[in-house]
Specification:
Elements (H helix, E strand, L loop, with lengths): L10 H13 L6 E7 L6 E10 L2 E11 L1 H10 L2 E9 L5 E8 L2
Antiparallel strand pairs: 1-5, 2-3, 4-5
Amino acid sequence: MGNGLGVFGDETATRHQLQRLLGLLVEGGCVLIETGNFSTGSFRTVQHEIEYGGIVDGPFSWGYATHQWLQREVVAAGFEIVSLTHSYGPGPFFILHAKKCA
């Protein structure tokens, strides 16, 4: 789920949609989720507007979760963390690789 976690919006909606997504995986299935990193809190929602050429889209809610928040949610859903990779460019990101427990 590359850079898509934020599209769910606020923390409650993100938690709900993440649980639905993880619920689709079978035993032994794995998931890769990318999340941005920021220094304060565990989850925050920001209002964004994006301009493509002369067309403006938004404002819309975008959720930012720390990798610690994401790890807690994924483990609570019955997954084992396989790896957490810190990636840079265009900003700091974390890519979480998790496997559904037996």
